[in-house]
């Protein structure tokens, strides 16, 4: 099949590359000429393990192309994917759909013969209807079916998530479009991946409901973690104790500094707006948004409390800045609030992140970005583990002890054990673990 992928951001680039690896001919299109030039020179603009090699392989085998000119690829395409950004609209929390609608208009002018137009971007319920209306308005004779096909890719594990998904969701009532989608995802049939075909609006809602549910799960365990601290319990054991119940499941029950990233914060907010517009209550999601945003700030207070209530003039070393490991993505990362609040309280910040420092340097000021974890903690009054990168899991603790001014560690990801840390001479605190 021939695929045109509009947008070479995270979702477009990963999806386009994986479709090419499935054997389809894929052209990725972006208006940003410097991005396309870079991709044509083998440079990948995002940090995603395995992606560089997969792009190189498929380019080499003539299945993957990058261009700024959409005309030919869209004309020849069996399916055109819209994978452009849907940022939060300034001021009101709604998803900004201007890029999606602009793509729809562009597609309308260029399609030739029956073409499936697929929204892969996360879009509010009813966006598919609007995309269809735009195409019909712009080109009444266009033979297109507009399909919703949400992505469920996790940054850092996106290739595996694309190639071995738990499910594929296809939202359309057009049989011919279902056939095209089934053909595109045919390699997954071997693994018997469930393909859920549903109405378009349901498919659009599935994406938001999935992300919101995961955000609820994380926020729930984070509040339970706070309770554990108050009543002498251990949240990791609570997670295990409840997660082994198949109805609950053990994933996304790790307590931490609050969720961040490009999806959960944006999508929970958008879902809340969708519900409000529809006159339907979503009180759980609303309170999750509030609790999570408070939590990020509370984490700075946790550090301040650990330091005896005062960090004025103290040096705090942050280990990890990205919103999670294996990504350079800093969007909505808890580290942003933590740094800001600690600085307001008079702390000096040193920091190290294996991938996120370039991004972080654009979002934070007066932070000393360091060459490695040991450089970051040099002469610091306390080390704070913010992101659970593997390289922080096995630090040389003797070295850490000699480098820090005093052996104090705040572990916001629970990657060390309290009794072990105290046996090694550390004053140590973590999240939701009284022992
Ligand atoms: C998420 C969804 O998982 C994915 O399906 C969707 O398409 C996009 O959004 P991603 O943002 O890459 O993916 O990150 P994810 O691994 O889900 O983590 C999100 C945030 O939750 C991170 O800040 C992470 O640290 C936090 N988290 C996750 C927890 O605090 N505890 C957990 O148990 C799991």
Notes on the protein architecture:
- This protein is an alpha/beta fold and 435 residues long.
- It has two domains: 196 residues, NAD(P)-binding Rossmann-like Domain (Rossmann fold); 202 residues, 3-Layer(aba) Sandwich (Rossmann fold), CATH 3.40.50.
- 44% of the residues lie in helices and 14% in strands.
- It has 17 helices and 14 strands.
- The strands form three sheets. A six-stranded parallel β-sheet has the order 3-2-1-4-5-6, sandwiched between helices.
- Helix 9 crosses helix 11 and helix 9 runs parallel beside helix 12.
- The protein is elongated and about 70 Å long.
- Uridine-5'-diphosphate-xylopyranose binds next to helix 9.
Short description:
The mean pLDDT is 96.
Contiguous runs where pLDDT drops below 50 for at least 5 residues:
none
CATH third-level topology of the largest domain: Rossmann fold
Strand content: 5-15%
Q: How big is the Rg?
A: 23 Å
Compute the number of structural domains. 2
Tally of strands: 14
Secondary-structure class = alpha/beta
How widely separated are the two ends?
Answer: 57 Å
Bound molecules: uridine-5'-diphosphate-xylopyranose
**Which homologous superfamily in CATH is the superfamily of the largest domain?**
NAD(P)-binding Rossmann-like Domain
Which word captures the global form?
elongated
């Amino acid at each position: 099949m021939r695929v045109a992928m509009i947008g070479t951001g995270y979702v477009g680039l990963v999806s386009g590359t994986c479709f090419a690896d499935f054997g389809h001919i894929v052209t990725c299109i972006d208006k940003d000429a410097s991005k396309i030039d870079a991709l044509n020179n083998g440079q990948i603009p995002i940090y995603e393990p395995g992606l560089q090699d997969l792009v190189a392989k498929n380019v080499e085998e003539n299945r993957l192309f990058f261009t700024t000119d959409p005309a030919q690829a869209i004309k020849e395409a069996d399916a055109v994917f819209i994978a452009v950004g849907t940022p939060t609209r300034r001021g009101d929390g709604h998803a900004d759909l201007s890029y999606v609608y602009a793509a729809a208009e562009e597609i309308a002018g260029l399609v030739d013969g029956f073409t499936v137009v697929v929204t892969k971007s996360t879009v509010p319920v009813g966006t598919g209807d609007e995309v269809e209306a735009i195409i019909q308005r712009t080109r009444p004779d266009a033979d297109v079916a507009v399909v919703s096909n949400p992505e469920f890719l996790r940054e850092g594990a996106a290739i595996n998530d694309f190639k071995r998904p738990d499910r594929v969701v296809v939202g359309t009532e057009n049989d011919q479009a279902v056939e095209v989608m089934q053909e595109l995802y045919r390699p997954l049939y071997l693994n018997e991946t469930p393909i859920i075909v549903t109405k378009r609006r349901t498919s659009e809602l599935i994406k938001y409901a999935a992300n919101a549910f995961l955000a609820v799960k994380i926020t729930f365990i984070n509040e339970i973690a706070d309770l554990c601290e108050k009543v002498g319990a251990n949240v990791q054991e609570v997670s295990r104790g409840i997660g082994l119940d198949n109805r609950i499941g053990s994933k996304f029950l790790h307590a931490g500094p609050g969720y961040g990233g490009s999806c959960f914060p944006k999508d929970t907010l958008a879902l809340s707006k969708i519900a409000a517009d529809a006159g339907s209550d979503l009180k759980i999601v609303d309170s999750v948004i509030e609790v999570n945003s408070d939590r990020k700030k509370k984490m700075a207070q946790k550090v301040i409390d650990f330091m005896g209530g005062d960090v004025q003039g103290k040096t705090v070393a942050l280990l990890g800045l990205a919103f999670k490991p294996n990504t350079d993505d800093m969007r909505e990362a808890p580290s942003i609030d933590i740094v800001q609040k600690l600085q307001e309280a008079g702390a000096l910040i040193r920091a190290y992140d294996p991938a996120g420092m370039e991004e972080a340097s654009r979002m934070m000021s007066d932070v000393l970005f360091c060459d490695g974890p040991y450089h970051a903690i040099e002469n610091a009054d306390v080390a704070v583990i913010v992101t659970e990168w593997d390289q922080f899991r096995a630090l040389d603790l003797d070295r850490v002890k000699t480098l820090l001014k005093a052996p104090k560690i705040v572990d916001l990801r629970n990657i060390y054990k309290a009794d072990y840390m105290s046996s090694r001479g550390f004053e140590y605190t973590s999240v939701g673990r009284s022992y």
